[in-house]
Specification:
heterodimer, A: 22 helices, B: alpha+beta, six-stranded mixed beta sheet
Chain lengths: 477, 289
């Protein structure tokens, strides 16, 4: 299980007005290796086969912290130049709030402008017919296609075809998101020590790896998710004059698919969902996933190893704090989609844990009557049983646990619950017989009790979501 | 299972037991006898004190002095329930150490003793119910596999029932190297169950799990204690030390008088000699919640 702790201000920096003048401060000059890496990156984005490990993913995955931070800087610069060839005076804000100047020599800027023409698809020969001042005309007039490397020429033609077909220049950003997502999902991440020196700006995320309630390691990770998020911030509809990723269906689908995948794989990242909700504040699915994220944060599996890391920025709060956050998000999800019974199921559990048993019973009764999936009904029954028990309605609680037992006869949880309830009612024989039945359960498979995978149960369709999202871009290539 | 009334010293803890007298002419009658058993460790300067008699103790139930019916020492066979963590973090050398610890415990058991095994990952398993064939423990341990989460609380609850499957003198030894991540039952409810159960719980935990208060609370609730081990090599000695300490406890029985039956009861076991200390359960619960 992974947990991202320290939030990065990378996206905040991406939204900075890069051409603001600033007082003298730290300067971050471009270096020759960064320019070479930016070109490699453009080629990797163009050549990558979405959904697969290939040369592109292995090449970019091999880059370390400073390399990726430098790429992040130059991705932002490339995007700005792509949309405004006369852009200059680039700055960024450090994690501590200082403004730094991003310095480029004229030759470096010309090289970046060339790459921007390639990435934007503006080297298509049709650009020659555009009026002067049009980006395509400017690119065609200033960048001889036959002087580019073979790889860049191929990339230019591909991005050009895409722009002609789509009517916008967003392909590079969407394919970049796929490349970095695939690296995050498919490649073995580099283990970067937290103490690794870094640039003053750029992504820097701390990951806590946990196993069975114990902290295993703390490293820098998740950088590729930030790269993908940053790239998508530049998605601009054809009729817009500024980036507007919230208007793009692929961006919404990307966040939904990747957030679901992260929860299925137990790679928790609240920042990712915070970004998603910033763009799509009324999306019921993203609100539900956000609620599930905080519900997971409250679980013992995450709370226990956090005791040493609790004071780090971005780390989860106490169980109660996380339950309250989850409840608020589930409420918002229900407002966005009142018929989403799975949301009521999760909210009912949270309300019970917060001690609001009457409200919990109401939500869980409604959910259990409406849900058709046996596994979800099982959850509704065991959570309802606990809420009823905590309210003192022992007879009704026993019925709920018994219904859960009928839905999953091989599951331990209903038998433990029935035993405990019987004990509380001074029914010694009832308590003992339930434990004896537990001891003789024949099904020893790891899926015999759905309670064991409750926190990932809602995300089992993640792979299909990812495939659908990737297909939105792949077939435009 | 029918609970039988035997000698008072072996009477079930706070369980109504049936006394049936049958003769050719007289009618059958029943009466409820409830006795309380308290396992108490008495020490002087940290060393167990042996040879004490009923007159050496005062017992108070809810502050009311009680008449001690019986004090026994090391006479009653032990029902030892081992509860072993079999989660992912135990795989490898630690599991080997647990197997060795189990075998050392077998060697320390005597005729009449019984043993049982409960293992837990996210799943609670009872591969060995209480049995006088103590050598089977070794066979079962050899087949134990490690993997998955940690349902310590669920396992402790199950083990309390295993311990009560027989009216012997029950000690539950729980080993865990981690924190509960998977249980369904709430810790406070299991502690309530422990206060009603007739078993002393000892815990053995590794350094990494010392922040886990549940084992400490469970041991305190039942009059046991927790051994914190710094390395896995000493798990074996901790297990045998627990069994040795348990055999040096006194079993004090009394029938509560002049106190309400149902509800929470505090127990105070005081040795009359001032230089002695007692470790025993602090109380018990009677009746339904």
């Amino acid at each position: 299980m992974m947990l991202m702790l320290a939030a990065s201000d990378a996206l905040a920096q991406a939204r900075q007005q890069f051409n603001l003048s600033t007082p003298a401060g730290m300067d971050v000059p471009m270096t020759p290796d960064r320019l070479l890496r930016l070109e490699q990156w453009v080629n990797a984005v163009a050549a990558h086969q979405p959904g697969e490990r290939d040369d592109s993913t292995s090449t970019v995955n091999a880059w370390g912290l400073r390399e990726l931070q430098g790429l992040w800087i130059d991705l932002n610069t490339l995007a700005r130049v792509m949309r405004n060839r006369s852009a200059g005076g680039f700055t960024a804000t450090t994690r501590e709030g200082f403004v730094v100047r991003l310095l480029y020599t004229p030759a470096q800027l010309r090289a970046i402008a060339t790459l921007a023409c390639v990435a934007g698809g503006y080297l298509d020969p049709s650009g020659a017919a555009m009026p002067s001042g049009h980006p395509a005309r400017q690119c065609v007039d200033s960048v001889p296609l036959n002087e580019l490397s073979t790889e860049l020429r191929e990339a230019a033609l591909r991005f050009g075809r895409a722009r002609a077909a789509r009517g916008d220049d967003n392909m590079v950003f969407e394919r970049a998101a796929l490349l970095h997502s695939d690296i995050a999902m498919l490649e073995r991440p580099m283990a970067i020590p937290v103490s690794t020196p870094s640039l003053p700006v750029g992504p820097r995320r701390i990951q806590l790896e946990m196993m069975d309630g114990n902290p295993v390691s703390m490293t820098l990770a998740g950088l590729h998710w930030e790269m993908a998020e940053t790239a998508l911030e530049y998605v601009q509809p054809a009729d817009a004059t500024r980036p507007a990723p919230s208007r793009d269906p692929f961006v919404r689908q990307w966040y939904t698919a990747t957030a679901t995948w992260m929860q299925k794989e137990e790679r928790h990242d609240a920042q990712h969902l915070d970004n998603a909700r910033r763009l799509f504040p009324d999306d019921a699915v993203l609100l539900f996933l956000s609620g599930c994220e905080h519900e997971a944060y409250a679980s013992p599996a995450i709370q226990a190893p956090l005791q040493a890391a609790r004071r780090m920025p971005g780390s989860p709060g106490s169980s109660t704090e996380e339950w309250r956050r989850a409840d608020a998000l589930f409420r918002d999800a229900m407002r966005a989609d009142p018929d989403a019974m799975e949301v009521r199921l999760h909210r009912g559990r949270i309300l019970s844990l917060l001690g609001a048993q009457d409200d919990a019973v109401a939500e869980l009764e409604r959910a259990r009557m409406a849900l058709s999936d046996p596994q979800q009904r099982y959850y509704a029954e065991v959570f309802l049983g606990r809420a009823l028990e905590d309210r003192g309605d022992f007879a009704e609680a026993q019925q709920a646990y018994a219904r859960a037992h009928d839905l999953a006869p091989g599951a331990q949880t209903p038998l433990l619950a029935l035993s405990q309830l019987a004990r509380r009612r001074d029914d010694f024989e009832g308590a003992r017989s339930a434990i004896e039945e537990l001891a003789h359960l024949a099904d020893t498979s790891d899926d015999s009790d759905p309670w064991w995978f409750y926190f990932v149960s809602h995300a089992q369709h993640a792979d299909a979501l990812v495939a659908d999202a990737w297909a939105m871009v792949r077939y435009g290539w | 299972m029918k609970r039988l009334s035997i000698a008072l010293a072996l009477a079930a803890f706070m369980i109504g037991s049936m006394v049936v007298a049958i003769s050719a002419q007289a009618p059958t009658f029943t009466s409820r006898i409830e006795s309380v058993r308290v396992d108490a460790l008495v020490t002087r300067n940290g060393q167990p004190v042996l040879g004490l008699q009923p007159d050496d103790f005062d017992v108070l139930d809810n502050g009311v002095r009680q008449q001690i019916d019986h004090v026994s020492f090391d006479l009653i066979p032990v029902n030892l329930v081992l509860v072993l963590d079999a989660s992912e973090s135990v795989a490898g050398s630690l599991l080997d150490q647990l197997r060795l610890a189990g075998r050392s415990v077998i060697a320390a058991l005597r005729g009449g003793d019984q043993t049982a095994l409960v293992t837990f990952s996210h799943r609670v398993a009872q591969p060995l119910p209480l049995t006088p064939d103590v050598n089977r423990l070794s066979e079962v341990l050899d087949h134990a596999q490690a993997g998955g989460g940690t349902a310590l609380i669920d396992a402790a609850y199950s083990a309390l029932w295993v311990a009560q499957a027989d009216p012997g003198r029950a000690v539950v030894v729980v080993f865990s190297d981690g924190t509960d991540t998977s249980s369904w039952l709430a810790a406070d409810r299991v502690l309530q169950a422990a206060r009603r159960a007739d078993a002393v719980v000892y815990g053995v935990r590794t350094r990494g799990s010392r922040t886990n208060a549940f084992l400490s609370d469970l041991a305190d609730a039942t009059g046991g204690r927790v051994f914190d081990v710094g390395s896995t090599d000493v798990v074996r000695s901790a297990f045998t030390a627990i069994l040795g300490e348990f055999r040096q406890r006194y079993l004090i029985s009394y029938t509560p008088r002049n106190v309400k039956r149902a509800g929470s009861h505090t127990i105070q076991v005081r040795p009359k000699a001032r230089d002695l200390k007692v470790k025993a359960r602090a109380g018990y619960l009677a009746g339904p919640d």
